[in-house]
Amino acid sequence: MTQGDTPDLSTTAGRLADLRVRYHEAVTAAGEAAIAKQHAKGKTTARERIEQLLDENSFVELDEFVRHRTHAFGMEAKRPYGDAVVTGFGTIHGRQVAVYAQDFTVFGGSLGEVAGEKIIKVMEHAMKTGVPIIGILDSGGARIQEGVVALGKYGEIFRLNTAASGVIPQISIVMGPAAGGAVYSPALTDFVIMVDKTSHMFVTGPDVIKTVTGEDVGFEELGGAQTHNAVSGVAHYLAEDESDALDYARSLIGFLPDNNLSDAPAYDVAPELETTDADRELDVVIPDSTNQPYDVTQIIEHVVDDGDFLEVQPLFAPNILIGFGRVEGRTVGIIANQPQAMAGTLNIDAGEKAARFVRFCDAFSIPILTLVDVPGYLPGTDQEWTGVIRRGAKLLYAYAEATVPLVTVITRKAYGGAYIVMGSKQLGADINLAWPTAEIAVMGGQGAVNILYRSEIKRAEDAGEDVAAVRSRLANEYTYNVASPYLAAERGELDGIIQPHATRVSVIKALRALRGKRATLPPKKHGNIPL
User: Fold this and answer.
1) Domain of 460?
2) Beta bridge partners of 273
3) Helical ranges in 74-183 per DSSP H
4) Are residues 70 and 196 in the same domain?
5) 245 and 239 Cβ atoms separated by less than 8 Å
């Protein structure tokens, strides 16, 4: 029987043939021309994306034969199977996940009533079975022909995104446009991955902005992948191409638990509690000058298994690093000040970036390792006027609320309020360690000299002495006598002072000791984080 023949539905063979025909129509709903057009843009189809994302032959599709119910604007003549979205479930690394992929080759991937119902159904399936959900977005927005019905489905999706938050991991992979209200679904998920040059997200497009404000701005500058990774902080990874985006999602899933009641995957790793030559490399990481930067990833890679660190949001607020690694085969969330960027100071963006990561780790019972080298908050009117007090308090709130194991290692500077915010003992950290190079004080030596030794400096000036040398001597005295980590250890604010080469083993032992941690918060509906 050829593709154009009509099966004899009075026979079993005919009905089976009819199913094959319908399935072929569902798989090629848009037609070969539309698929070729998608490929010409350097983009793959929804089904091709799912195939690459999931383990081979693991995808089970849901609702492939549904059709929209719209009759307005001649839509009754165009009712392809699937209605512009492919949904179902499968496996990544052998673990179950739910997935949906908007199909731009069908109605531009627009969301109508039935497409919305499909997404809602697979989200409910993910919630019911306790598995991560991954959404692949490539859509022109709400289907105009369906009006308020389409908009209503967005609202239901947003509600489910919110209900799933902290219950199952949610990942959004933006592989095309996402405009208008549609952008809020990925914004509500845990991680957003965008593809360079082909992904765009914005609430109002360039044409509307031009009409209302007169401002000329292009798609890339307004809402491209570079913008949302480096400027707005909406996205968490900038992929070079679609394959890179899907590979990152697979890597990310490998570190995460299925849900908030299960543990992240753990792997058998032979215990190594002896100091290695690689460990001793940490003894020379910190420069002699406190003003000289270094790359904190050197420390991270020496602590985690096999140096495997999956950074999250690397382009946004680079003065603080966040990401996942494993210690003894178990997932750990890592937060670290980065001296190579803005001297590791905290600013609004860094605080919000780290706060959201702390809350994610806490929601999914992932222990947190904090590496501290922070000279303070970034000064300036811009920071003060844009809300560093309120917005900076988010990180403090996140740490104080967290009940997962918290291990903190101070490598160098820990000054002022920034010291308190970065996983301090006072905020509830369980084990706080420091290197001998640590400096813990209200402020650094140079700043303290101007306040504490003003009269001595004035006398040196009057006596014609070398003021710079006097200032340096006094700053060193302050550092040794007031900012010494041994002073903090005497008061119990540090649980130990360790050699840098002992960091990996110390972190292993700390996390082992905290595996049975049980902590509860006062009963309440929810807190009022300073949003």
Assistant:
1) 445-482
2) none
3) 113-129, 148-164
4) yes
5) yes
Between residues 299 and 478, the one the model is more confident about: 299
Q: Output DSSP code: residue 453.
A: T
Catalytic hit among 417, 428, 447, 496? 417
3 located within any domain: yes
Q: Is the dihedral of CA 380, 472, 337, 396 positive or negative?
A: negative
- Residue 221 shares a structural domain with residue 344: no
- Give the whole-number percent of the chain exceeding pLDDT 70: 97
CA distances for 20 relative to 1, 15, 26, 32, 408, angstroms: 11, 9, 10, 18, 59
SS3 171: strand
Is 99 a member of any domain?
Answer: yes
pLDDT interval class at 234 (50, 70, 90): very high
The whole-number average pLDDT for the span 366-377 is 98
* Mean pLDDT score, 496-519: 97
Out of 108, 166, 181, 205, pick the active-site residue. Answer: 181
Catalytic position from the list 46, 418, 429, 489: 418
Whether 26 and 124 map to the same domain: the answer is no
Cα end-to-end distance, the chain, whole Å: 63
Tokens in use for 385?
Answer: 């006027």
Q: How far apart are CA 370 and CA 429, in angstroms?
A: 10
Question: Which among 90, 116, 176, 180 is annotated as catalytic?
Answer: 180
**CATH code (residue 93):** 3.90.226.10
Residue 74 pLDDT grade (very low, low, confident, very high; cuts 50, 70, 90): low
Active site residue 233: no
**Residues 195, 63 share a domain:** yes
Do the bridges between strand 85-92 and strand 95-102 make them parallel or antiparallel, or are there none, so unpaired? antiparallel
Active site residue 463: no
Active site residue 181: yes
Strand partners, 334: 323, 369
Has residue 12 got a pLDDT over 60? yes
More confidently predicted of 108 and 262: 262
Residue 249 sits in the same domain as residue 228: yes
Residues 313 and 181 in one domain: no
Residue with the two structure tokens 């859509």: 139
For residue 264, being part of any structural domain is answered with no
Number of domain units in the chain? 4
Residues 457, 439 share a domain: no
411: amino acid identity, one letter: T
One domain for residues 112 and 234 = yes
Instruction: With CA atoms as reference, report the closest residue to 433 among 360, 509, 367, 361.
Output: 509
